[in-house]
Amino acid sequence: SIWIAVLGTSVWGHHMYTAGLDIDTRTYFSAATMIIAIPSAVKIFNWLGTFFGSNQKIQPLWCWTYSFIFLFTVGGLSGIILSSASLDIILHDTYYVVAHFHYTLSLGAVYGIFCGFCLWLPYMYGISFDGMMMMAVFFCFFVGTNMTFFPMHFAGLQGMPRKILDYPDCFFAFQIISSLGSVITFVGFILFNYLLIDSIFFSRFLGVSFYNYHS
């Protein structure tokens, strides 16, 4: 984590490859951005290493956790491609960049929040949630978010620019898939709100034995 923070302060130039940087500066920032993938990969293997020997079951907490690592890894792999100055000039301001930072930042943060929710809700508020309903929320989010953002990689590779109101018909299939994914994700959001209402207003309170067992 320390090396990620240290190297992260020296790779800001990869956002400015098309701003007129000279070739030597672009070469430095390309190399520095590729190097930061090393401590990031170590961090991922550290996360995976903490699971060895643990008693894992198919439950919402583990599903959200493994999905977070998977999505962060996908975002990191696309980041290695964008670290190349020559490729970034081609892919700059396309949907490939949109897919990259959503996988790395947006989805990583959202799935991390859900991990914390599943772990800390019983401890902080003394209430539980419907496990099957949370699995349905996870399924909708995982399928929906990947349908929304993964096709953007292919749209970006074909040159679809970001920040436009309309697009050529050749990108229609990618947009349809992404739109369907957004609908599925929204359904998951509705289910999550219902899960909160069910947990709070239908008396899913935990007894003292829960705290004695887990303390």
Key phrases:
single chain; 215 residues; mainly alpha
Structural notes for this entry:
- There is one protein chain.
- Helices cover 74% and strands 0% of the residues.
- With 215 residues, the chain is an all-alpha fold.
- The chain has one domain.
- Helix 6 runs antiparallel to helix 7.
- The longest helix is centred in the middle third of the chain and has 31 residues, at 95-125.
- The radius of gyration is 21 Å and the shape is globular.
- It comes from Dirofilaria repens.
- Its EC number is 7.1.1.9.
- Belongs to the heme-copper respiratory oxidase family.
Treating each run of at least 4 consecutive H or I residues as one helix, how many helices? 9
- On the 0-100 scale, what is the average pLDDT? 83
**What global shape is seen?**
globular
For the largest beta-sheet, the strand count, sense and barrel status come to: none
Task: State the share of residues found in helices, binned by percent.
Answer: over 70%
Number of strands: 0
Count of domains? 1
| Low-confidence runs of at least 5 consecutive residues | 208-215
* Helix-strand makeup class: mainly alpha
Percentage beta strand:
under 5%
- Termini Cα gap: 29 Å
**N-to-C SSE string, H for helix and E for strand:** HHHHHHHHH
Radius of gyration: 21 Å
Summarize the structure.
GO terms for molecular function: cytochrome-c oxidase activity; heme binding; metal ion binding. It is built from nine helices and no strands.
What topology does this entry show?
Layout (H helix, E strand, L loop, with lengths): L1 H7 L14 H13 L1 H13 L10 H24 L1 H7 L3 H31 L5 H27 L14 H30 L6 H7 L1
Helix pairs in contact: 3-4, 4-6, 4-7, 6-7, 7-8
EC number: 7.1.1.9
Main location: mitochondrion
Catalytic activity: 4 Fe(II)-[cytochrome c] + O2 + 8 H(+)(in) = 4 Fe(III)-[cytochrome c] + 2 H2O + 4 H(+)(out)
